# Entry
Amino acid sequence: QMSRTLEHVLGRDVVLEIQCEQDLPPFLGVTNMVKLAIMDLCATSRSSIRGAGKLTISTSQKRIEQWRAGRTLEAKEGDYVRLSIRYVANDPAEEELDRDSRHNLATVYGIAQQHCGWLEVTNGPGLSASFDLYFPIASRKFHENGHDDRTVEISGGRETILLVEDEV
# Structure
């Protein structure tokens, strides 16, 4: 749905490739926030590419084992949908991340946290980097009466949810 907008953001010099795994299970996520995360990561990637390059967006289902979860502070054991954004620059920009890019990464990190997931950033050899967002899978149970009863298996602390109604 976002490919035309992303092609505009990336420009003509950056090839956009999208590889989405079919039949992914549903995950807990606010659509507009996930779209914002994608846009911010693409904009951050674009600022790291001087001239031509390639940006790949992919999705997949991943099982995170306990030993793997211990390698990343926010990671927890379980089943996740992974959204990956990888770029390869033909000629990388030599500047450090600019202020907007640092803000973009902070925003994406916050979105991942709000969805009980996390963000991993990896710099590749020389001209590449990748951003992996992990969102917990929401399990569904269907009852005989045809209604679906959504249950979520997310481990967490003792969070408090504040609901504010803006209409009187």
